[in-house]
């Protein structure tokens, strides 16, 4: 019998067909695998990255959000990073916890234990409903999906002050150079060039209004370029003309994903994962 993963309704179990306890498993599904590597992602047609774990569909940066995005079929997962005073990296986009947790404090001033006691409010992120979720350590995401999915890692506001520690975190991902994309706004050319010099793929995202000033000078720092899905056809043509893969960002729904792809996007950073990512076949066959 071949091994598979079963979903009990609350957790994943490793089982085989001959050992499956029907009484313990309420539903069986195949958990989709992600992109095997960055190169496979780029070569395989349109690719989809779950923005903060699907920030328009699920409580952003929670392990629950990433698990739901994986179940939907997102082959790559994006994580914005914050750094606690005791040296822990966790999922957080903003400079404070005000928007997602109604606590107006910079997480750099807190310990991880203090952060963990502050929930991500289900009413404030994702669809605005559902239970609160705990914050998630970066190492939790790496342990869960670092061997099966491509990870886009963004060091956000501490990229300069904690860059050495950031590289330690990146290197902790299994087969990191094949599975990690270092992400940042295109203006941070030092990070993009640092990533490429270390053998990593980098993604720098532009907005249409920045192209005249920055495209010619900053594009070389980034292996993959980004442009907002709503940018004009002429802007997309300018970026595509550089001959690099281009991602559309940040798509809140299926219509935005389709818009990006119609303009020539090779992949899309998707916030509305629940409808914006093509659903994977999760049918499990016991044999």
Describe the fold and architecture:
By secondary structure, the protein is an alpha/beta fold. The protein folds into two domains: 1-30, no CATH class; 34-276, TIM Barrel (Alpha-Beta Barrel), CATH 3.20.20. The protein is 29% helix and 20% strand. It has twelve helices and eleven strands. The strands form two sheets. It has an eight-stranded parallel β-barrel, surrounded by five helices. Strands 1-2 form a two-stranded antiparallel ribbon. Helix 10 links the parallel strand 9 (224-228) and strand 10 (246-251). The longest helix has 10 residues, at 63-72. It starts with a strand and ends in an 11-residue tail after the last helix.
Brief overview:
This protein has twelve helices and eleven strands. With 287 residues, the chain is of the alpha/beta class.
Q: Going across the biggest sheet, name each strand in turn.
A: 3-4-6-7-8-9-10-11
Number of strands: 11
CATH topology of the largest domain, which one?
Answer: TIM Barrel
Please tell me the total number of domains: 2
What general outline do the C-alpha atoms trace? globular
Q: Quick one: CATH class of the largest domain? A: Alpha Beta
> Which range best describes the helical content: under 10%, 10-25%, 25-40%, 40-55%, 55-70% or over 70%?
25-40%
Write the element-wise H/E pattern from the N-terminal end onward.
EEHEHEEHHHEHHEHEHEHEHEH
CATH superfamily placement of the largest domain? Phosphatidylinositol (PI) phosphodiesterase
Distance between the termini: 6 Å
């Amino acid at each position: 019998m071949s091994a598979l993963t079963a979903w009990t309704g609350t957790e994943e179990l490793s089982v085989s067909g001959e050992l499956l306890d029907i009484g313990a498993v309420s539903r069986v599904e195949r958990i989709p695998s992600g992109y095997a590597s960055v190169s496979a992602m780029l070569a395989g047609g349109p690719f989809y990255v779950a923005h903060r774990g699907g920030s328009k569909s699920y409580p952003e940066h929670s392990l629950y959000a990433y698990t739901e995005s994986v179940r939907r079929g997102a082959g790559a997962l994006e994580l914005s990073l914050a750094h606690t005073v005791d040296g822990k990296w966790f999922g957080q986009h903003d400079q404070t916890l005000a928007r997602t947790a109604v606590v107006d404090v910079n997480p750099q001033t807190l310990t991880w234990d203090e952060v963990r006691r502050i929930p991500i409010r289900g009413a404030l992120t994702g669809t605005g409903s559902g239970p609160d979720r705990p914050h998630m350590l970066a190492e939790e995401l790496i342990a869960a999906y670092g061997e099966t999915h491509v990870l886009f890692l963004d060091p956000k506001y501490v990229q300069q002050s904690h860059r050495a520690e950031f590289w330690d975190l990146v290197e902790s991902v299994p087969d990191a150079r094949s599975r990690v994309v270092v992400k940042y706004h295109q203006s941070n050319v030092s990070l993009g060039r640092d990533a490429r010099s270390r053998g990593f793929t980098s993604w720098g995202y532009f907005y249409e209004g920045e192209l005249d000033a920055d495209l010619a000078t900053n594009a070389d720092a980034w292996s993959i370029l980004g442009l907002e899905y709503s940018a004009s056809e002429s802007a997309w043509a300018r970026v595509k003309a550089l001959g690099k893969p281009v991602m559309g960002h940040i798509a809140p729904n299926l219509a935005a994903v389709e818009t990006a792809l119609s303009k020539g996007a090779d992949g899309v950073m998707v916030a509305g994962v629940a409808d914006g990512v093509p659903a994977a076949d999760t049918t499990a066959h016991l044999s």
